[in-house]
Structures are given as structure tokens and as C-alpha cells.
Amino acid sequence: MVSGSLGTVGGLIVCALISWIASKALWFTGLAVELGYLELGTALWRDPVANRWPFQEFLTAGLIIAALGAMMDVSMSVSSTIYEVKRVNPNISVLGAFRSGYNVGRDIMSTMTDTLIFAFIGADLIFIVMPGLIFPEGGRLYPFMRMLNMEETAVEAIHALTGTLGLVLAIPISAAIAAVLTARYRPRTAYAQEPKSPSRKEGDDPSHIEGVET
Fold first, then answer.
1. pLDDT at site 139
2. Cα(116)–Cα(38) distance, rounded to whole angstroms?
3. Is 50 helix (H, G, I), strand (E, B) or coil?
């Protein structure tokens, strides 16, 4: 629990830093929000009550929260793997435990990164097929460049980037902390707490042996 939590926090710090830098460098407003046909961000910007809301900070917080689930999943998987490896082989070194968890995390990272990228592609599939469409007024390049410069497209790209980098750094952090903690606090030996099956003599009926199901 400790290593998984700290690994998640480490990845979130990286996500927060990248999201904040991207929001400032790319001039994100946080107002590119639509609800059906209603441009909700524009309506909020015009509303005097919501005029002072920190929309840019809301956007940064949303990018961090969106990457939280994936990092929690990966960090806990790596920590649990190292714990089980240590239970099966109590004599494994800290470096060996770290390598075991890191190798598992590296495999998970590839699939989880693909999940984030595919989510981005699925949300903006029209952006992917736009270069192959011909529009009577603008041809191919003009509508594609307009969509490329939209804030929603840039936010989705930063979302995929922050989530990926957060995963990449959360895995070694979780693996290192879990390896050190399992070396400091030795886990229980695997299968040591499992009850032993009762002895059975030849000719005994299993139904009369206590604790044995027929």
C-alpha cells in the first residue's frame, strides 16, 4: 500500500508539472467546453458570476485526475508483484526484487500507454481521417489545420503525453520503494499459513475424515 501510494504520488507530481507548463506555454484557456450544441465555455466566460473562475486551473486539475486511475493501477500491480516475489523467495536481494517488479511494470506500461493513446484516437477520430477528406470550399489542408490548432485537440494530446510520462516514472518509483520496504520488513513466507491436509490411512472413508470434503 505504501509503495503503491508513493509511486502514484510521484507520477502525479510529474503530470501536474507537465500539465501546468503546457497550459502556460500553449495558452490554454480552459473554456473549450461543449455540451451538445451549446458552447458551454463561451457561455461561462460571458456570465458575470463565472467570469472570475480559474478555468485554466480547472483544466490542469482535470488532466491530473484523468491520469490518476492508470497510475494507481500500475503502481499497485508493481508493488503487489514485488511483495509476492519476496514471499516466494525471501532471500532475493533488493536489486533482484526491483528488477522483478520493474520487468512486470514495463510490460504493463506498454499496454497501459496504448490504452491512453487509443482513448485519444477514439475521442478525436475525425481528426485522424480529416487529411483524407476533400471539402468544396477549403480542400484538404485548410479544415485540417483549423482542427489541428483547436484547443480541444491540443488538450487531448497533452492528456496522452502527461499520462504516458506519469506511468513511465510511477513504475520505477513504486518498484524501488517496494523493494526497499520488503527488505526492511520481511513478508510472511508464502503458503506458510495454509492449513495442512489431514493424514489419511489406507482404507479410511474420506467422508469420515474431519475437514475433508467428499
1. 65
2. 27
3. coil
The tens digit of pLDDT for each residue in 108-133 reads 888 887 877 787 777 767 777 776 66
- Domain assignment present for 177: yes
Q: Average pLDDT of the chain? A: 76
For CA atoms 202, 204, 207, 208, give the dihedral sign. Answer: negative
Dist. CA 12–CA 29, nearest whole Å: 22
Average pLDDT over residues 78-85: 91
Please state whether 211 falls in left (phi above 0), alpha (psi between -120 and 50) or beta: left
Q: Which domain holds residue 48?
A: 2-190
CB atoms within 10 A of CB 40: 13
For 139, the 3-state DSSP assignment is strand
Sign for the CA dihedral angle at 189, 190, 195, 201 comes to negative
- The number of CA neighbours under 13 Å toward the Cβ of 53 is 17
Number of separate domains in the chain: 1
Of the listed ranges 45-49, 75-79, 162-166, the one predicted with least confidence: 45-49
Given a contact cutoff of 8 angstroms between Cβ atoms, the answer to whether 156 and 124 are in contact is yes
Residue 97: inside a domain: yes
Q: Is residue 207 part of a domain?
A: no
Which residues partner with 135 through β-bridges?
Answer: 139
Residues 3-15 have pLDDT tens digits of 989 999 998 898 8
Tell whether 176 is covered by a domain: yes
